[in-house]
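Troubleshooting log. The previous structure file for this entry was overwritten by mistake, so regenerating from the original sequence record. Sequence copied from the archived sheet and checked twice against the printout by T.R.
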Amino acid sequence: MYKDTYFLVLDDPISSFDFENKIGIYNYLRKQFKLLFENNEFSQLLITTHDMEAYYNFEKVLQDIILDDGEKAVKKVNKYILTENGLESDKNGQKSNIYNYQFKLIFEFACGNNDEVETYIGNTMRRVCEAFSTFKYKCSIDNLRTDKNIIGLINNSNLKDFFENYLFRLILNNESHQEDDYKGITDKNIDKYLTLTEKIKTARLVIIFLYKLDKMHVVKHLSNKREAFEVGKIIESWEQEIMNLMN
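Regenerated output below.
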């Protein structure tokens, strides 16, 4: 098997499985990748995914494969991230933490420094919120607002009520496009109807909300180019604007 030259393409091969089955699939694919590389040096593998968890885990799978020349398979991998400007190389791992990269995109957009990402910022906010809710609380975006234990982490009662009633779902559209088609929904990307100013406001609300749930988590992800103190001051100034409106 795999003696001939193969160009093997896997398009999101993991995302539809539950967690227990994912482990088995990763193990199975690791074995197949090793056979592929060992049996024909000209064979190539292309994996595409929109799932950040899969992005990280496939890198681990390839780190676990030692080739005949003693190199890890991951050393020969070319990684790219699709952005509005096309494919951007992640060969040196500069964007390997996609969650961190997207988190910073949202923050800079919220600061008014990154208008060029306007056309896809809604999708970026959705992905960050999905990752945050999944990795930290093993729940959906909606449960961040509706789970009493989670929303209860916000100490200020006015702010807690505000976010509990703020329907991120309408803006971030966390349904699948295929599911929308089945339901007959035509306006799948509500954020495209928002002005730049409204999108910036929404980005600020997303950052504030996650900050109130886990201050350290947000500051750690955003304080690379900026000092942690500066990040905190910026977010807290946005929070104060909301509080002023409610008063």
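Residues 174-188 have pLDDT under 50 and may be disordered. Archived copy saved in two places this time.
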